[in-house]
Amino acid sequence: MKRQSTPSTFFSHKSRKISYSRSQESVASSSVEEEAPPAPQDSSASTSALDSTEGVVHESPPPPVSEISPFSPLDIGHFVRSDVSLDDEQRYDALVNAWVPGEHYKFPKVQEQGRSRAFQHYYLRTWSWLTYSEMHGGGGFCKHCILFAKSESSDRRGHRVLGTLVTQPLNKFKKAVETLKNHAGLQYHLDAGEKARQFLQCYKDKPSLDVRNRLVTGREQQVMKNRQRLIPMIKTVLLCGRQNIALRGHRDNGLLSDDSLGDSKEGNFRALLRYRLDAGDSLLEEHLANPKRNATYISGKFQNEIIRATGRLIRKKIVNEVRDAKFFSILADETRDLGKLDQLTMCLRYVAHRDDQRVLKEVFLKFCDVTDKTGAGLARAILDNLKEEGLDVRDIRGQGYDGCSAMSGRRKGVQAEIRAVVPQALYFHCASHCLNLAVVHSTDVVPIRRAFGVVSSVAAFFSNSSSRVRSLEDQVEIHAPSSSKRRLKALCATRWVESHQAFVTFKELLFPIVRCLEGISQIPGDSGTGAYTLLNTVCNFDFLISLYTIESFASLLLPLSVNLQKKELDIFGALRIVDTVLSVLKERRGEAGSVFSGVFGEATKFSDSIDIEIKMPRVCHRQAHRENHTVNSPEDYFRTSTYIPYIDALITEFTSLFDDTRNNAAKLQFLIPKFTIDSSYGDMGEIFNFYEADLNCSESVLRGEFELWRARWIEVPRDTLPVNAIDALNSCCDEEFPKISILLRIFATLPVTTSSAERTFSSLRLLKTYLRSTMSEERLNGLTSMLIQKDVAVTPEEVLEVLALDPRKLDLVL
User: Fold this and answer.
1) What is the pTM assigned to this prediction?
2) Cα(509)–Cα(486) distance, rounded to whole angstroms?
3) Where does residue 298 rank: exposed (0-12), middle (13-18), buried (19+ CB within 10 A)?
4) Which pLDDT belongs to residue 70?
5) Hey, where are the domains in the chain?
6) What is the pLDDT of residue 154?
7) In which residue ranges is the amino acid composition biased (Low complexity) (predicted)?
8) pLDDT class for 811, splitting at 50, 70, 90?
9) If DSSP codes are grouped into helix, strand and coil, which group holds residue 534?
């Protein structure tokens, strides 16, 4: 079948396609159509992270991450090739959205005949077709000629080969103005400009300007009808994707039968189509009445195309929102899925606009199958995938990972590798992981560690048997009918809230647990033996006092764990609630005697209810395996051996684990109004030096803005001052404080936790199950995006526009 035309058919065609955002020189690392010969690899180009299903094997090792050049994906230099073909969307982006240097961008200087010269901003203002590229050594290019001029041309001056401003940059500036004026008068440049104008007009109004619609009567109506025929299939796939409904069954091939019940082995997709037919969907009925066997568009292949198109649309909308925000942070984590593949999840944190207010957003971008799990390999995967989606990696301002060496290593970790490319990308250790580590490290106190083990063993004992679960529920109904808890919670290593909640629940159900273990211990066999052993452990005052001690702090750490996982929290807010908890811990430590008396009293009251004797271990001259304090009472002993060591360990861990975040925040806090009023511009020196490239101004300009910013808040009551970056940003007028606004946007973007990245693993486990443990990355990312990003609206018409880009039996191109 003859290939369908698009607006770009007015211009020259080539045999290869590129994706300009795949890598630094995406032209060299682009995906090639199957019928085209492999493109030679440019030695300076970085290796892209290709889909694992493509079966591509790199013959040579990838370059070091530090050598990956962070050029903008929309730098016009990506298109400077004579043997590539762009689709309409790429041409439009290159014409309208090409990267343009900022007003204060400093062009590199070159030496010409003993003088220093450079590209000038007024060149860009004078010639609208001119744009600057940092690639190919840096220089000016004519975007019209790059995109639309032929490789060779002839005019009244004779045969001409394209050169400066088309295949080579304008990087000699002694006669730059003369060169630009001469180029503006060349015939091939004028022709290219006219083609650019026609393309933009055709792109914006495709149906009315398409030549085929003018020549073929009724074609536009037929195309609209064809597009409507595919709407039911697209809506059905979107429904299944949003609701996490499996699409396919065991028999999903062939035409859709007229039987309303259908084949019992068919999947949900075909069942839902049959349901639409029963509901009177005339468009679907007409489409399926007399279809060609190779053009029904209900196959698994077409479902995958819809999923892939939807995923790309969702990611594109997210990327456009991130581009508007400019600065963003990357949150990443890695896990192994059910298909035994190592999946790297990537989430973005940025400032967005909603109802005339700025809000913080953390969104899932995509999964990436990784094989190289070293710091360099993971960093390369992150950077390549960000470029593939069209994001400028130079705008990364924060990194959020867990504390494993591959991610956080100061020399060869991911954060170090990315900072070698983007020095402003500050690394922050996930605050939730820090809290979890603080709790884990505090278990070095022996009685506390034993209590953790007992709680875990008892929870496992009950969860391993349905009859034990029912027995516990019956005891709870008898002895604690007012409790909303009916089952014990396990100590989860990743769900931090559950770990704290487990101790709260265990204490609340302690009496029913004891009565249930007493009953089970009377049963012969392994269950009775296990219950008897656990009963003796639980009915020990050493365990009880440790449990009550842990629970008294778990009730304090539980709200902290919940608050740290909020997406709208910034580092200043996080440190504020951490410092609040730390101050409470220090206060309890200072009043350890009176505070522990309450804890000891609760434990004593419960021990009396189950007839447990309260006594101290014997004291000997030399003890190696337990605390050996010389005290006068059990309360003094347990306060000295359990309570005080545990609270000291928590204070030490809270102080040390949050130190890096606290130090980074201390350098940035001077623009938060709460701290601004007590600061001077001298405190801003380090900030100005670090973010000088983002500010693009002299130090005196920032000084003036800071003084005005401080004056604005000096008379405002302290209790009404903004205390975090996002509130300060919403109180900042961009026109009045442009540089302050930039810094506040960066500060708000800095990550707090990787909770958003961790949550995507829950979606991964829902999608990759034992029923379907293998699927392509495109399908996985499309389904995950639909499941997680439900607030990103995607219409069937938008999906159709993407599907229409590929040749089909049905004419879908307006």
Assistant:
1) 0.79
2) 8
3) buried
4) 67
5) 7-21+73-207, 219-298, 436-616+628-657, 668-749
6) 53
7) 42-53
8) low
9) helix
